Amino acid sequence: xxxxxxAAEVDVILDVVAGVPHVFPMFAGGSLEEADQALDRAALFLxxxxxxxxxxxxxxxxxxx
Length: 65
Description:
Layout: H1 2-7, H2 33-52
InterPro entries: AB_hydrolase_fold
Protein name: Alpha/beta hydrolase family protein
Organism: Actinoplanes auranticolor
């Protein structure tokens, strides 16, 4: 999915964390250091994207593939 997003010129970051369950970010808040790091990284990415703005060319299109 990340490669398809990149091919469509969408900003994307894919982090793969070995040795943790699929839903490991649920354990943020001190229970699992990797979860805290993942949420911090996601928050940074979203903050940067929102600060930069979506631009006038962006349009939501749920049917686009």
